[in-house]
Design brief:
13 strands, globular, 14 helices, 372 residues, 16% strand, 2 domains, alpha/beta, single chain
Length: 372
């Protein structure tokens, strides 16, 4: 694409007008339009505001970006995004995913492999910051008209894309942070703190490669603080539920649970291990270790490297806080615990990389990314 012309809307509720206008002022190069909930006194919902925001496409734009009023762009977001869209103008691109999602595991793989865009694998598309080609945005608005007004916009967009055989991608690293913990629809009480899986630092932008999702994506279920797996239908490009028994999948892949426990117990003998087990208990530590091992065993990266040590470290550092945030919310506020969980994740990943995958086990090859 020779030229990227990006329009921008900020979807907001009148009670957050000051946030929305401050966000617009922080992005003068985009001249964002602040779009308020057309029924601010109605039942809490996001779809009606999303429809208005996606309708605010500038006539001459090639792409349209919608930001929620609690998004915080990183320094250089606009330049990084335009460069990315210049090289990859077709896919829907989310600028954020929360640290406890299945897509967060894709971000971690992307960081480890040096990819700039990874496939979203959850049952929703992250909409804290989302950009669509302008034509797609227009089609989305038409599709929203036929939906129930109380439907979450992130789930509606996921189904809209699925209907056309497309999936969304998220940037690695993320270009916006989710700044507010309060939710107008009550998500903060259920979901806890939702921060970026890997936030860009000044001067850091996404790479250019795509990473498509494999059939199984390990993660820590933030609802239960347990090891789990997202099932991804590779052919249809859609979320296909969860598997709660990661141990069984690891056994089928050739990693015996006894060996996994031996590896964990060995790590726990160290200073960080003893401190972490004392703070969290063996059960939570075991779940984090299991997911870290599974990230290696079920990795779609093959032998590909290419990440900077900094980005890989930062991506692993969000695994524990993101997965444990509803069960042990204080973990994200204790730097020593975060450091210990990061070390645990790195050790589990190394342990998993040393295991042997049996014939018929999970594929670890990096396939040719599909065209979004």
């Amino acid at each position: 694409m020779a030229d990227v012309r990006l329009s921008c809307a900020i979807m907001a509720h009148p009670s957050r007008a000051s946030n929305a206008y401050a966000l617009a002022a922080a992005l003068p190069e985009l001249s964002p339009e602040v779009v308020f909930d057309p029924e601010p006194d109605g039942p809490p919902a996001t779809l009606r505001t999303a429809r208005a925001a996606w309708s605010a496409v500038a006539p001459d734009s090639t792409h349209h970006l919608v930001l929620q009023d609690d998004a915080t762009p990183v320094e250089g977001m606009t330049d990084s995004l335009i460069a990315l869209l210049h090289d990859h103008p077709e896919p829907p691109v989310s600028l954020f995913c929360e640290w406890g999602s299945g897509t967060a595991s894709m971000v971690r793989w992307g960081a480890l492999g040096g990819f700039g865009l990874v496939e979203c694998v959850d049952s929703y598309v992250p909409t804290v910051g989302l950009v669509l080609p302008s034509e797609t945005a227009g089609t989305l608005v038409e599709a929203i008209d036929g939906l129930a007004p109380d439907e979450p916009d992130d789930e509606a967009i996921a189904r809209f894309l699925e209907a056309s055989g497309r999936s969304a991608f998220v940037t690695v690293p993320n270009l916006v942070q989710h700044d507010g913990d309060g939710s107008l629809v009550g998500n903060d009480h259920v979901m806890g703190v939702r921060r970026s899986a890997l936030l860009a630092v000044p001067g850091e932008g996404p790479g250019r490669g795509f990473l498509s999702a494999p059939p199984l994506v390990p993660c820590v279920s933030w609802r239960r603080a347990r090891a789990a797996m997202v099932r991804w239908d590779v052919g249809a490009r859609h979320h296909d539920g969860h598997l709660p028994l990661v141990r069984a999948e690891l056994e089928r892949a050739g990693t015996a649970h006894a060996d996994l426990v031996d590896g964990l117990d060995s790590w726990l003998d160290g200073r960080e291990g003893r401190a972490l087990e004392g703070a969290l208990g063996y059960g939570l530590v075991h779940e984090l270790w299991t997911v870290a091992v599974a990230l290696a065993v079920f990795s779609p990266l093959g032998d590909r490297g290419g990440s900077s040590p900094s980005s890989a470290h930062r991506a692993l550092a969000t695994l524990g806080p993101g997965g444990l945030r509803t069960i042990a919310p204080a973990v994200a506020e204790d730097p020593s615990l975060v450091d210990a969980m990061t070390s645990l994740a790195a050790a589990g990943l190394a342990f998993g990389a040393g295991t042997t995958v049996t014939p018929g086990g999970p594929s670890t090859g990096v396939g040719t990314p599909h065209r979004p």
